[in-house]
Every structure is written in C-alpha cells, then in structure tokens.
Amino acid sequence: MSKDTIANILTSIRNADMNKKRTVRIPYTNITENIIKILLREGFIENMRKHQENNKYFLILTLRHRRNKKGIYRTTLNLKQISRPSLRIYSNYQRIPRILGGMGIVILSTSRGIMTGREARLERIGGEILCYIW
Fold first, then answer.
1. Best exposed site among 56, 84, 104, 121 by fewest CB in 10 Å?
2. Residue 53's beta-bridge partner residues?
3. 3-state secondary structure of 96
4. Please, what is the Cα angle at 30 between 42 and 27, to 5 degrees?
C-alpha cells in the first residue's frame, strides 16, 4: 500500500484519461482537495463533488472533454510528479519552472498552502514542487 497520496491521485486521473473514462473516484484528503481545486480552477477537469460512503469521503471528478464536428474527443492530460517521499524538490520563487511557456502549471506546496507556480511567483514564495500538469 502506497502512502504517497499525490502519486495516487495523479495515477488515477492519468489512467482514467487514457481509458476514456468520464469520472474518477479518489480518496478524500485535504491535500487532494486543494490540488483538485487548482485543477478545476485552471480548467483541466470539469467538475468535482464530495461523496460519503460508509463514513469515508471520496472526491468524484468529471474529466474535461471537447466537442468537434466529428463528435466528442477527450483532451489528454499530462501529469508528472516531481517531488517524491524519497526525494523532495524545493525551489525559490525565482527558479520556479514555466511549463510550455505558461500553457501548463506547476503545483507547489508553500508555507501559505498549495498553489500554482504563477501565484507563488506573484507572492514571492518558494516551496516544494509537487507536480507539473500540461
């Protein structure tokens, strides 16, 4: 059993996206809720709701898809975990990487909570780089 919750949610979302699933159910923690709120705010997922089952909470995510003339196709999410329990990666605000020239996002864990790289640069806060998403 893995204790790395960030790796678990990224893998669940990546697997559901590759298998063309519309919804994903992930275990609820405060960290996962904050990361999913960032993904929702940045437009990488469509919807999030909290669900309780046998005194355990889950987040049910609706993955984003687009329509074109030929029908519905899903956008592919590229999720990459950077910091792991065995190797933490820290960065000051000046060295936070830009993903695809600003098209992707970096999610950081800072002293003021979990935020995107853009927000951390504006507030001049460094922190632990959790993952890249594009």
1. 56
2. 56
3. coil
4. 90
